[in-house]
């Protein structure tokens, strides 16, 4: 049976702050993940010193979507004794890696996303993800901050079903992706106001082939 894969996704809202980078170090080292998807890094580049400092192990490799100034940015950081990067692509809203699991030579794709807040950019965002998945005929996993929900139920403020919600659901269905239920709560994001706005804008999606391989 294939080994499980441990993936962490986190919108870190900036890695340059010592307190935030300290929190990230603690999580990555204590949860011993195989690969991490960090969004909104606000970093234009990541070198070995930065990757090693965050990862805490010399068996580290990384892939970067640079920030635009101090806005956005995505980083993959992974254990290079567990995964080998075979190929990669970097877009506007996502980074994409074709990985080989070294325990069994299984090839699969991972897309780390940081979606736009602008409804007018949603179509370009979903088209970019579809383009990435069209490049290789392999099982897929997508994770990150999509900045959109699928239904009013996924927002504390409720509201009506919007075109963006429907477009997100259409994307998931068109690509044949599984959207697993969230465990431990209903929401993944908070505005941290006195009366906070809550929503589920962060999630993992994956193909049935990916789920079948990484059982449990």
UniProtKB/TrEMBL annotation:
Coiled coil residues, start to end: none
Domain annotation Endonuclease/exonuclease/phosphatase: ranges: 8-208
Pfam families to which the protein is assigned, alphabetical: Exo_endo_phos
Organism encoding this protein: Opuntia streptacantha
Transmembrane stretches, start-end: none
Listed name of the protein: Endonuclease/exonuclease/phosphatase domain-containing protein
Highest taxon of source: Eukaryota
GO molecular function: catalytic activity
